[in-house]
Write a structure and sequence with these properties.
Layout lengths: L6 E3 L7 H8 L13 E7 L4 H14 L3 E7 L5 H6 L5 E4 L7 E15 L6 E2 L1 H8 L17 E2 L7 H10 L15 H10 L3 E6 H9 L4 E3 L1 E2 L6 H6 L5 E8 L5 H11 L1 H7 L4 E2 L23
Parallel strand pairs: 2-3, 2-4, 6-10, 7-8
Antiparallel strand pairs: 1-3, 4-11, 5-8, 5-9, 5-11, 5-12
Length: about 300
C-alpha cells in the first residue's frame, strides 16, 4: 500500500497547552507580538516531530491569531515544499544553498550495545568498522567470540544521514539486515540480543538507561556522550537540527524562528536535543555541510 502524506494541525493533539507551558517554565506575558497573525506550514519526515509540535503549540498560545501546521511523513519532500512556497519551514539536518538555514539544536547520536556485551568503549574508526562490515566479530574488540549483528536504520530518517556523515560512511552501511525506523524498535532489538549494535538519538538512549532497559551507550574516542560534549564537538557523533526557510522569510515565520531560538524555545528543545543556547550561530557548522545520501526531504 502506498504511503499517504498526512497534514497535522497542532490543535488535534490532546496535550494540555497550559500544562506544557507550565512544565517548560514559559512566561505567557513576555515577548508576545499581537501584530503577528496568519498560518504557516512546517514540513519534515524525521524524528523531530514531537518537539516541533510542542514548539508550535507553545507559540500559538503566546500569539493568538496564529496557526502552525505540520506536514510530517516519510514521503514528504520538505525542502522542495519550501522552495515551491507550499511550506514555510523544512526541518532537516542538511543545508540547501537556495534556502536560509537556522540551526536550532544538536542531536547527539548514541552507539548502543546490549548491556551484557563486555565492549564498553570504541574509537571512531572501530565504529566505522562495525557499520561497514570491516569488523565482523566482537572478539576483534576484546569482546565475546560472537558475530556482530548490526541493526541498520532506514534512510528515511535524518539520524541515518547524520550518523554516516559523522563517520565518513559515504558508501552506506555494510549490512543485509532489514533497516529499522523507530528508536523504540531498535531499543527492543538491542536489549534482547547480546551481539547487536545500532545507533539512536542520544536523548532516547539516556532515557532508556534511566528506565532500566538493558543497553549500554558506548564511549567513543574516550569521550562520554552528553550535552556538554555534544555541544562543544568533543563527541563527534552528532548532527545539526536545522530549520530551512526562504532567504527572506515572512513575518510569522521569522517570529516563530525567533521563539524557537529564544530561551523558552530552547527549554522545549532540550527535552529531545542538545540546545544551541545562549545564541544560535549565523552559519551552519562545518560537519553540517557534508553531503549526505539522498533522502525524501530533498
Amino acid at each position: 500500500m502506498a504511503q499517504r502524506t498526512v497534514t497535522l494541525s497542532s490543535r488535534v493533539y490532546t496535550i494540555a497547552v497550559g500544562t506544557l507551558l507550565l512544565s517548560s517554565g514559559l512566561s505567557l506575558l513576555c515577548n508576545a507580538d499581537a501584530a503577528v497573525t496568519g498560518r504557516i506550514l512546517i514540513a519534515g519526515y524525521g524524528p523531530e516531530s514531537p518537539v516541533v509540535l510542542d514548539l508550535a503549540k507553545a507559540y500559538e498560545h503566546l500569539h493568538p491569531g496564529t496557526a502552525i501546521d505540520l506536514q510530517w511523513d516519510t514521503t514528504v519532500r520538505a525542502i522542495h515544499l519550501v522552495k515551491t512556497g507550499e511550506a514555510q519551514i523544512a526541518v532537516t539536518d542538511q543545508p540547501d544553498p537556495a534556502l536560509k538555514a537556522t540551526q536550532i539544536a544538536w542531536d547527539g547520536i548514541a552507539v548502543i550495545v546490549n548491556f551484557a556485551n563486555p565492549v564498553k568503549e570504541v574509537s571512531s574508526a572501530q565504529v566505522k568498522g562495525l557499520f561497514s562490515a570491516q569488523i565482523t566479530t566482537w572478539a576483534k574488540l576484546d569482546g565475546a567470540p560472537a558475530k556482530v549483528e548490526v541493526i541498520p536504520r532506514t534512510s528515511a530518517n535524518n539520524l541515518t544521514a547524520g550518523f554516516q556523515n559523522s563517520l565518513g560512511l559515504t558508501e552506506g552501511m555494510g549490512t543485509s539486515a532489514a533497516p529499522v525506523r523507530s528508536d523504540q524498535k531498535v531499543l527492543s532489538l538491542v536489549s534482547g540480543r547480546d551481539a547487536t549494535v545500532s545507533y539512536i538519538s542520544l536523548a532516547a538512549a539516556l532515557k532508556a538507561q534511566e528506565d532500566g532497559i538493558s543497553i549500554h551507550i558506548l564511549k567513543v574516542d574516550q569521550v562520554d556522550p552528553g550535552e556538554a560534549t555534544v555541544k562543544n564537538g568533543r563527541y563527534r557523533l552528532r548532527r545539526p537540527v536545522l530549520m530551512l526557510t526562504a532567504t527572506e522569510p515572512d513575518p510569522l515565520t521569522k517570529s516563530f524562528l525567533s521563539f524557537v531560538c529564544s530561551a523558552d524555545g530552547q527549554k522545549l528543545l532540550r527535552t529531545m536535543f542538545v540546545p544551541i543556547e545562549p545564541s544560535v550561530p549565523t552559519t551552519v557548522p562545518p560537519n553540517a555541510q557534508q553531503p549526505g545520501p539522498s533522502s525524501p526531504s530533498s
